[in-house]
Amino acid sequence: MNDDRCDVLGPLMSGYVDGELTQQQRQFVEVHARDCETCRRKLDELEELRARFAELDLEEVNTTEWRERMNEPTVETTRNVGWVVFIGGVVLAATVGVVSFFGASDVSTLAKLIVAGVYGGLVLLLISVARQRLIEQKTDKYRDVEI
Ligand SMILES: [Zn+2]
Question: How far is the CA of 39 from the centre of ligand 1 (A)?
Fold first, then answer.
């Protein structure tokens, strides 16, 4: 039975993972962990946890650089996707509206022409907005990848 030694080992584990134990204490932990699967698992979990924290620290140090390299294009891409989805939705809604409108037989030709003009103008407006976005992207000095 390892129960007594497990009790002693518990408080030593975090010290072991942090490298704060004496040589004797380290040896005690290592010898016991070799024989006791429960404590070996706990020790593994602690070590994994500590490694993850170390990674987090590293990320924090590199946050500024990381943000410049990763976040900027991500934000840009998300915004572009948002635009595409928005414009696509508007065009789709307009198309459905136009089709059902022009399909209706009780609407006069004049009314159809007026609506056609309104929608035509709207589409031209959207195209010019999209073109403006493309031009802005190309002149963006932080941007070296074009979609
Ligand atoms: Zn144990």
Answer: 4
